[in-house]
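stage 2 :: seqdesign
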C-alpha cells in the first residue's frame, strides 16, 4: 500500500487535505498522530514538517509526498516530480532595501544575502558567476537587512506585502513554485499502478477547476451558429424541447471565456441561460 507524506500543519496542509477529499480520500483529522490510514483509497498518510518530506520520500519512508517545489529544489533529494497540483503558488525572489539604486545582478557581488534557501541561492549565483555571501537563517529573513545582518534577502514571495512592510523591493525572481506531488523513483509495480490511479483523480479535479456547466434554450435554426461559437469540442449537447422550434443546449465552458461566449450566444437568440458549478470532468 502507498504511503503519502503531507504537511502536518502550515500553509499547504489545508489545500492538501481538501484535494484528497475532492478525490474521495479522507485522512484522519488528528494532526497529533504521525500516521493514519485513509478512507476511500488504499493509502497510509504520514504527517511531517514540509522540510522533511523530500527526504522521507527519497528514503522510502513514504512512497509519495505533497510539498512545495521550493523545498524539493532546496533539498536536492532523489525524487521524481510527478505532477503540479495548482495550489501553494509563490516565487523565490531576491529583494533589496528600497533605498538601493539597483543596476542589475552585479549589485550582489560581495554582498551578504540572508535566506532559508541557501542551496537554491548558491546554485543561482554560481550559474551567473556572482560572488556573494549566502547567510542561512531559519526564519524572519525579511528583517535581516533592517537589523544589519544582511544587505539583501532571498525569500518566498506571494502577494509581496511582507517585502513592502519591511522596506524591501523585489528585484529578481529566481524560481516559481507551487505544491507538487513527488514520488520515490524506485517504487514497485503495484505502487506505481496505485500512484497512476491517484494522479488520474487529482488531474480530473485540477482540470475541472474553473469549469462551468452551462445550459440554455436556443432556436433550432441557430444550432449551427451556436456550434461555431463553441469550437474545438465534442460538445455542445443538443436536446429537443416540447416546443419543436427550440432546443436545449448544454456545454462545459471555462470561466475565462464564460461571459464572452454567453454574450455571443445571447446575440443569436439563446435565452434562459443557467450556469452551474461543475464538480469534476473525468476524461
Ligand atoms: O512547519 P513547516 O516546516 O511544515 O512549515 P513552514 O513554516 O516551513 O512552511 P509554511 O507552512 O509557511 O509554507 C509551506 C509552503 O507553502 C512553502 O514551502 C511554499 O511552497 C508555500 N507558500 C506559498 C508559502 C507562501 N505562499 C508564503 N507566502 N510559504 C511561505 N510564505 C510566507 C513567506 O515566507 C513570507 O514570509 O509568506 C510571506 C510572504 O507572503 P506575502 O504574501 O506577503 O508576499
Ligand atoms: Zn518548513
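stage 2 :: out
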Amino acid at each position: 500500500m502507498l504511503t503519502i507524506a503531507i504537511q502536518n500543519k502550515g500553509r499547504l496542509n489545508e489545500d492538501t487535505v481538501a484535494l484528497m477529499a475532492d478525490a474521495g480520500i479522507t485522512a484522519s483529522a488528528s494532526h497529533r498522530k504521525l500516521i493514519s490510514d485513509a478512507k476511500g483509497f488504499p493509502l497510509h498518510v504520514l504527517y511531517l514538517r514540509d522540510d522533511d518530506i523530500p527526504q522521507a520520500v527519497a528514503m522510502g519512508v513514504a512512497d509519495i509526498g505533497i510539498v512545495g517545489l521550493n523545498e524539493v529544489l532546496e533539498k536536492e533529494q532523489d525524487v521524481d516530480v510527478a505532477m503540479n497540483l495548482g495550489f501553494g503558488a509563490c516565487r523565490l525572489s531576491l529583494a533589496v532595501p528600497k533605498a538601493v539604486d539597483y543596476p542589475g545582478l552585479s549589485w550582489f557581488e560581495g554582498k551578504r544575502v540572508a535566506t532559508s534557501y541557501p542551496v537554491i541561492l548558491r546554485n543561482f549565483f554560481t550559474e551567473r558567476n556572482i560572488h556573494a555571501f549566502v547567510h542561512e537563517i531559519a526564519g524572519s529573513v525579511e528583517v535581516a537587512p533592517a537589523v544589519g545582518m544582511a544587505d539583501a534577502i532571498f525569500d518566498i514571495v506571494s502577494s509581496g506585502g511582507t517585502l513592502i512592510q519591511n522596506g524591501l523591493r523585489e528585484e529578481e525572481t529566481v524560481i516559481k513554485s507551487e505544491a507538487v506531488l513527488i514520488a520515490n523513483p524506485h517504487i514497485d509495480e503495484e505502487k506505481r499502478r496505485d500512484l497512476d490511479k491517484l494522479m488520474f483523480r487529482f488531474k480530473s479535479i485540477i482540470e475541472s477547476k474553473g469549469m462551468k456547466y452551462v445550459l440554455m434554450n436556443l432556436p433550432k435554426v441557430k444550432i449551427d451558429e451556436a456550434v461555431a461559437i463553441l469550437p474545438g469540442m465534442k460538445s455542445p449537447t443538443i436536446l429537443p424541447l416540447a416546443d419543436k422550434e427550440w432546443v436545449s443546449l448544454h456545454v462545459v465552458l471555462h470561466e475565462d471565456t464564460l461571459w464572452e461566449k454567453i454574450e455571443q450566444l445571447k446575440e443569436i437568440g439563446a435565452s434562459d441561460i443557467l450556469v452551474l458549478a461543475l464538480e469534476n470532468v473525468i476524461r
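stage 3 :: structure notes
- The helical segments are 11-22, 53-59, 69-75, 118-127, 161-165, 189-208, 223-229, 255-267.
- The two ends are 26 Å apart (CA to CA).
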